[in-house]
Design a protein that fits this description.
- This protein is of the alpha/beta class.
- It has 5 domains: about 5-145, Response regulator (Rossmann fold, 3-Layer(aba) Sandwich); about 150-285 and about 310-325, 3-Layer(aba) Sandwich (Rossmann fold), CATH 3.40.50; about 495-655, Histidine kinase-like ATPase, C-terminal domain (Heat Shock Protein 90, 2-Layer Sandwich), CATH 3.30.565; about 690-810, Rossmann fold; about 825-940, Homeodomain-like (Arc Repressor Mutant, subunit A), CATH 1.10.10.60.
- It has 30 helices and 24 strands.
- The strands form 5 sheets. The protein has a 6-stranded parallel sheet with strand order 2-1-3-4-5-11, sandwiched between helices. Strands 7-6-8-9-10-12 form a 6-stranded mixed sheet, with helices on both faces.
- Strand 3 (about 105-110), helix 4 (about 110-125) and strand 4 form a beta-alpha-beta unit.
- InterPro entries: CheY-like_superfamily (IPR011006), HATPase_C_sf (IPR036890), HATPase_dom (IPR003594), His_kinase_dom (IPR005467), HisK_dim/P_dom (IPR003661), HisK_dim/P_sf (IPR036097), Homeodomain-like_sf (IPR009057), HTH_AraC (IPR018060).
- This is histidine kinase.
- Keywords: DNA-binding, Membrane, Phosphoprotein, Transcription, Transcription regulation, Transmembrane, Transmembrane helix.
Amino acid sequence: MPSHLLHRGNSLISVRLFQTRILPLLAPVWVLLAGCGHTVQRPAYRIGFSQYSVAGPWRRSMLEGMERELSFHPEVQLQMLNAENNSQRQQQQIRELLRTDIDLLIVSPYEAAPLTPAVEEAFQRGVPVLLLDRRINSDKYTAYVGGDNQEVGQLAARFATRLLHQQGNIIEILGLPGSSAASGRHQGFIRALAASPGVHVVSQINGTWQKADLKPALKAALKAHPEVTLIFSHNDGMARGAYEVCQELGLTKQVRIIGVDGLVGKGRGLDLVQQGVLAATVQYTPGGEEAIRTALKILNKEPYQRENTLGTLLIDSANVLAMQQQTDKRDIERQHRLLQSLRATYASQQSILYGLIATLLGAVVLGATAWYSARRNRQINQQLAVQNAENAKINHQLVKQNEEILSQRNQLEVLAEQARADTEAKLRFFTNFSHELRTPLTLIMGPVEELLTSSPDLSSMQRQDLTLVRRNTQRLLQLVNQLLDFRKIEVGKMAVRATKGNLVEFVRDIVDLFEKPAQQRGVRIRFLAADPELTGWFDGNVLDKVFFNLLSNALKFTPDKGQITISLQAINEGQALRVSVADTGRGISDQDRAHIFEWFYQGGQEAGTKGSGMGLALAQGLIRLHQGQLTFSSQPGHGSTFTVTLPRELPEHLRSTEQLTTAFAPVEPEAIASSFKAEETSPAAATDSETLVLVIEDNAEVNEFVARKLRPHFRVHAATDGHTGLRLATDLIPDLIVCDVMMPGLSGLELVAQLRQDWRSSHIPVVLLTARNAPEQQVEGVQAGADLYLTKPFNPTFLLESVRTLLTNRAHQREHFRREMLLETPPAAISPDQKFLADLTAIVEANYTRSNLSVEDIARSLGISRMQLYRKVKAVLGTGVTDFIQHLRLTKARELLLDETLSITDVAYEAGFSSLSYFSASFKARYQVSPSEFRTLQLASPN
């Protein structure tokens, strides 16, 4: 803390002690003194001064000037805070000064931009603001006092040109980068030098207003520019440092130096000019006295100038003595005025002293009274000490109780953390268990679906039993999905991807599913929409689970011949949509109301209406994710109404530009037979007995089930783990792979990634089977390179048709490669298949002349077996390796036939044919003309 602030703090403590202890005793004295002399008044004004730094003689001179001027105004109190060259600290200090209720604020900014908001805040609060030396980036201030830095630079430039006789080189030493003083002086200096083309600034040194910081850079500049004859420094301190550098280099006679400030005192500007260290200095008045004078005019409501630009003067050896004498004269005049003020104060204090002597007797009496009061206070303090001891004992007991409470709270936190960990473990178990249920569900639903769709000889009773199995298997699948959704909500993984749509149409489609079971029980369903179209942003994958659960509950608890009413309307002036599902059931009891939305709570349900306790809890969780509300009202014996309120607009991060398909397949109400029908496709006989499908599944039963469904149509190989499956895939080169995702050792995703990186297997289509049905998991499978992603349980007919579709697409791709080859367009090596064709073509072309080039030779060059090469070429091009070699040789021969220097026999042997007759027969079979006829036609045709 600055010394004057510390002194002020001690003074405040002394004043408070005087006011609380001494003032009550001396009150009568002041009555006596009222007529004896003038009383000492409190300061009339408080001025706050925010100075960015007090380092350096120029800043100290500014503060000294303020203190000199304030010596004539004892009624004014100045509080100065030093920011120490830190703009952020200066902002804080300005706000701190404003909190002390100052009457006027003086600011000397460090940087203009950062200080502008704080100064504007003071000005807008009605506090007059006086800017000293530097400005801000705003006109919200009361007055400005300071020099013209551009004029300083211009004076220095004009003197420099006269000193150098319009010819010479200069080094400029700038002040702190970013400061307005350095910028203004530089601009004025350069602008004035423009009138003297023979004078050049050959180097600029960035200083910090301190002489020590510029010496290394200045030494380097003087050595690099030995022709320099003058240095212009932005202040006298750096100018003195420049002189010391010139002394070290022996350049004091060659290089003249101009400084800025022109302060009085030993080692300062005027003294340096008198000593001959500086050729000249430009006087830049600190302005402390002028700032105080302007501030007092503002406070006293006297006329003042808003812009007060201080004059500048160039001081050299011709006028330095006169300036020194003029400054000394001004100091003597100020001291004379101060002496007169002190004499007046002395006279006033003398009168006060006489009054104090007159009141000494009264002070003695008051002292006796004070002694008695002190004795009485000691007695009271002793009593308080006893009471404090008792309070300490009570506090000690309270501390012990608090420690016990804290210990119990810590134990409760440990127990709560353990409970959370146990709950998390249970949820993790149920989630994993739910995933595992999907595999046996696959083995149940697959055969049942196939029997229902492909067995016309089933009796009515058998079909009814199988339908019952399918319906309850679907119900079990729904419970598994709800449990997984519950887990996603708990861990924050459930995402909302809303698209814009018609909510009326969406809800009507779900209601239509309940028409048939409602009719079978005589329940009437009424659908009431206020408008035929109510558009809004919503996620169908979320809301269909909500409305399906609400309608299922309504149908379940509504008695026969009852009624269910679904109503839709816009509310809140069209900002929200409301969907209500009302039934005429038995209602919800008061006991169940508080727990109706709790997970796994079943309440006092009748035996025939027992549920899982997840539907309503899941619905409420999903509605909250959708930023909506799910509420209910119920009257026992008269039914219940569940109301969903949804915002019509959703934030951008919840919207999706893609139209998502509904991933939730609701299980139909138990009252109706399942209407799900697999796409009936009569299994066609395998059109290509060479089509090979590889099944990779670690569950033996699922493996056998998938293989059994595919064998009537394809050749099937099976593997029970990922590593074996990868080995068989690269050895056999199958036409398609059906693979599970979750396998020990090597997962399905990792297997697909490795297949895509290996050119031997990169072309093979892959179908992934998994119990993981989240959209992000499906995206992960597709990104890994899978062609199709099926979730368990799956429809076997759909799997079969998907395999056929993928094989058909592969055939189309194979035909595309063949067309490229026939068009003689070499494929660009951008995919593994195209790279394989490029490598194969390069090997054959490098061995054209070898008539004994065999498939084994090519396979050996590629590092694979003969069978792998055959299956790869067959899969990519649909042709054999021999036919591919023959194609390339005939293409080469056609090129060689255009060379008249080669005979037909030479062309045949050059293209790798063992005999001329075999070459002629092969060429004619390919191009429908003999080699000689081809040459004649080509050479005869015009270019």
